[in-house]
Amino acid sequence: MRILKTLLAAALGAAVLAASPVLADDKMEMKPAMAMVGDLHISAPWTRAMLSGQKVGGGFLIVENKGGQDDRLVAVTTPRTDKTEIHEMAIVDDVMKMRALPDGLVIPAGETVELKPGGYHLMFMAVPEPFKEGEVVPVVLTFEKAGDVELTLPVKPAGTKAMDHGKMHHGKKTN
């Protein structure tokens, strides 16, 4: 009976670890799928696999500002490329346009901003080696007030349009 209890406890422990929101980066260091820096909670990071020869990719995540002051995402870096930008896609004169946000992206106090396909996103440019499905891409996000936070973006299949995060909308407070 004692052996059975030990085996069950080990199996339960393994199941809990397998279900935990933890990701491994390129160096196999374990990092959580959610990160916190200051009043900011960053969750659901991901990117898409790139096609052979493709030199640009997008990064996506959710930033919730639980504080009383606005903050601003001002930079993103990764060892996977030397050039990254914070971008916005918007419809201008009935045409979808993408542009860099040189002043960064405001994360309003008490609100949640989702970086997603077709909207705000991280832009990885001049990527020498395309991201492959199953890999992770380490990044450092730099916020004006909260500072730097390290996290990893798991690489999803090339055709992935969005992650399922319920009914989140840019600029809306979620509970």
From TrEMBL:
<dbReference type="InterPro" id="IPR036182">
    <property type="entry name" value="PCuAC_sf"/>
</dbReference>
<feature type="signal peptide">
    <location>
        <begin position="1"/>
        <end position="24"/>
    </location>
</feature>
<dbReference type="Pfam" id="PF04314">
    <property type="entry name" value="PCuAC"/>
</dbReference>
<protein>
    <submittedName>
        <fullName>Copper chaperone PCu(A)C</fullName>
    </submittedName>
</protein>
<dbReference type="InterPro" id="IPR058248">
    <property type="entry name" value="Lxx211020-like"/>
</dbReference>
<keyword id="KW-0732">Signal</keyword>
<dbReference type="InterPro" id="IPR007410">
    <property type="entry name" value="LpqE-like"/>
</dbReference>
